[in-house]
Write a structure and sequence with these properties.
- The complex is a heterodimer of chains A (439) and B (213).
- Chain A has 439 residues and is of the alpha/beta class.
- Chain A has helices at residues 15-19, 45-54, 59-74, 85-95, 112-120, 139-145, 165-175, 227-239, 248-282, 317-331, 347-351, 377-384, 391-394, 399-413, 416-425, and strands spanning 78-82, 103-107, 124-128, 150-153, 178-182, 190-191, 194-195, 202-206, 220-224, 285-286, 294-295, 301-305, 386-389.
- Chain B has one domain: 3-Layer(aba) Sandwich (Aspartate Aminotransferase, domain 2), CATH 3.40.640.10.
- Chain B is built from 7 helices and 6 strands.
- In chain B, the strands form 2 sheets. Chain B has a 4-stranded mixed β-sheet, sandwiched between helices.
- The radius of gyration of chain B is 17 Å and the shape is globular.
- Classes of the chains: A alpha/beta (439), B alpha/beta (213).
């Protein structure tokens, strides 16, 4: 039988391993190769039973019941379940009143789907830089990008941290334009008591199986504050013959998972806190920044690097990052870059073919720019000085695994000499000089 | 469909823990692709999450997009509306026997065993097979013998990535593969597993024709 049951337990942490030789130089690995598997999503007997029951119900009812349960959890006005996060963002924009040729302001740092959803709505994405601490859209940069053709601002709650919604809301209100959230990383993320997905005039959210709140495969959901926006989106897909419906199988799986979401959220928050304390003690590393009153969902966990605290200030930070990346991966902690160049520098936004013949960019040539990475210095600076944990911390990992992650970071931080040697010997390049990566 | 069989298939996939469409350990999506190519006699399959996604992929796979025109007879109102949204003009004039841009088949539980027979009658470079009627949620596929059509269609559905090896890069060798608009048209493995079961069972039903098996 093919099963995801882990075959071997991870040994308890051993302080002696932290002082041992680095794995990259022949020492032992903090997490040995055959013990690296992280199971996500967690699938339980309840999930199986929910699916068994669902196949005896009308498919439309399974999807509608799921959407209603999750809408109530988020506290949004109206919900439209979809086949993917991208389609949910497309419909959120349509519901918010975005028309062909309109400009929609999006952050230069996000997953490419944010910007492609704008193109799907036959509108033109206008890219702006991010805040250096939250990595979310910079409200001042957004303000500077507003023109007479801007119809919406679409911040992304990057990695699960809500963007500066109060400032962006005020900006949208001042100009009479819509605030549309990309909440694809931000399940259960909060500002105060309000949940991401309910802040804006509309929101889109991915529910694919690798998100904090996973459905059975692929799925998404669009939220709307007003019924009129919901109706506009629902009419749009009917009128244009677009099939964006969610499968009942994906929805049924989500119904089971929703009941356990608060439990997994609590485990993620606890694990983020434990690892964050360990990182902050290393000097070289820092935990993600979370503004007062914000609740981070930790779909991804972006770690800062500070070479100056380790006597490495003479080295380029991107080279230090690459060396540290190598050392961590060798220890068995699969850290990632998760993006290496601003989204407007990805091929589809350099060529801008769109649906063909340059549509919809051709509708509004004035909104189109040929961007270089340096146009977004904060994004580039962040990409050059941070590393990300994804599924490794999204999953409710064993406590001993969490402690071993912390040990891997401690072990690497103790060896600035090794980092210096790798930088001297390595042929490292800036992240954006490599081919643009999706994730 | 026998409920017991759907239950067994769903439980089997859940037990593997692999429910995401871009997992390297997923076997359900490649399994359904293989079955569809075998059953239709086409070399390549692109699985997608709906009929309109398949129509979009069939056209984008041939480089047909906004501002282009196709000659195609007998499309339903919904397909025509979708093509208009893509910016593709449909003309119904021209010779009766002209090859259309794509052929389309919609299967349900009653005629799932006729896939081979229906595919054999299709002549277009792309064959859209709508699998939604089988009852597992929106699902469809594009079948083709043209590797370039498949390559472009795959890139439309997964943000420029073709497979797990290229999943995380957008670098392309061929200039005509540079992506334009991109969607997430990916089919879920759980849905694929059920569709595969339904197609598999169809071979055990006595077919009224010489359907390939």
């Amino acid at each position: 039988m093919i099963t995801d049951f882990p075959k071997n337990p991870l040994p308890l942490p051993d302080p002696a391993e932290v002082g041992a030789e680095l794995a990259a130089f022949g020492g032992g690995q903090i997490i040995p190769k055959d013990l690296r598997r992280t199971v996500f999503p967690v699938i339980t007997k309840e999930d199986v039973f929910t699916l068994m029951l669902a196949q005896r119900q009308a498919p439309e009812k399974v999807v509608a019941d799921f959407a209603e349960a999750y809408r109530a959890y988020v506290g949004a006005g109206w919900a439209l379940p979809t086949a993917s996060g991208t389609s949910s963002l497309h419909l959120a924009l349509v519901g918010a009143g975005v028309q062909p040729g309109d400009e929609v302001i999006v952050p230069a740092f996000t997953f490419i789907a944010t910007a492609q959803a704008v193109v799907a709505a036959h509108a033109v994405p206008v890219f702006v830089d991010i805040d250096p601490r939250t990595y979310c859209m910079d409200p001042e940069a957004a303000a500077a990008a507003i023109t007479g053709r801007t119809r919406a601002i679409m911040p992304v709650h990057v990695h699960g941290l809500p963007a500066d919604v109060p400032a962006l809301r005020a900006l949208a209100d001042k100009h009479g334009i819509a605030l549309v959230e990309d909440a694809s990383h931000a399940h259960s993320a909060r500002i105060g008591e309000q949940v991401a997905g309910s802040f804006g005039d509309a929101a889109g959210q991915s529910l694919m199986a690798d998100k904090n709140f996973p459905l059975g495969g692929e799925g998404g959901i669009a939220f709307f504050r007003e019924e009129s926006a919901y109706r506009r989106a629902a009419d749009y897909v009917r009128r244009h013959g677009i099939d964006y419906e969610m499968s009942w199988i994906a929805a049924a799986f989500g119904s089971g998972q929703l009941a356990r979401l608060p439990y997994y959220d609590a485990v993620r928050a606890r694990n983020a806190r434990v690892l964050g304390q360990a990182l902050d003690e290393t000097g070289l590393f820092s935990a993600p920044y979370v503004p007062e009153g914000h609740v981070h969902a930790y779909n991804m966990y972006r770690i800062g690097l500070h070479p100056e605290r380790a006597g490495l200030e003479d080295l380029p930070v991107w080279a230090v990052k690459e060396a540290v990346h190598e050392l961590l991966v060798a220890e068995g902690v699969p850290a990632r870059e998760w993006q290496n160049t601003p989204i407007p520098c990805h091929l589809p936004f350099r060529h801008r073919d769109g649906f063909g013949g340059g549509y919809p960019f051709s509708l509004n040539p004035g909104a189109v720019r040929d961007h270089r990475p340096q146009d977004f210095p904060v994004t580039v600076g962040m990409l050059e000085s941070t590393l990300v944990l994804c599924r490794e911390l999204r999953a409710p990992v064993e406590y001993e695994r969490l402690l071993r992650y912390a040990d891997a970071f401690r072990k690497v931080a103790r060896r600035p000499d090794a980092i210096r040697k790798l930088v001297a010997d390595g042929d490292y390049r800036r992240p954006y000089e490599k081919a643009a990566r999706l994730g | 469909m026998e409920l017991f069989d759907t239950a067994t298939v769903l439980t089997r996939v859940l037990t593997t823990g692999v429910v995401m469409s871009i997992e390297k350990n997923d076997r359900e999506l490649p399994g359904l692709e293989r079955l569809l190519t075998k059953r239709t006699g086409r070399a390549r399959a692109v699985l997608v999450n709906s009929r309109s996604a398949a129509v979009h992929s069939a056209l984008a796979g041939q480089g047909i997009g906004h501002g282009d025109e196709i000659r195609q007879r007998g499309l339903g109102e919904k397909d025509r509306a979708f093509l208009a949204w893509l910016g593709v003009t449909v003309r119904e004039d021209g010779p009766e026997d002209a090859t259309p841009a794509f052929d389309h088949i919609a299967l349900d539980a009653g005629d799932v065993h006729r896939l081979g027979e229906l595919a054999a009658e299709a002549t277009a470079p792309a064959l859209v097979v709508d699998l939604t009627g089988l009852g597992f949620g929106p699902a469809a596929a594009v079948l083709t013998d043209d590797p370039a059509l498949q390559a472009r269609a795959e890139r439309l559905k997964i943000f420029g990535a073709y497979d797990l090896r290229t999943m995380w890069t957008q670098q392309e060798d061929a200039a005509d593969l540079v992506p334009g608009v991109q969607f997430n048209y990916r089919l879920s493995p759980l849905v694929a597993a059920c569709v595969r079961m339904a197609l598999g069972q169809a071979t055990r039903t006595p077919a009224s024709s010489g359907a390939a098996s």
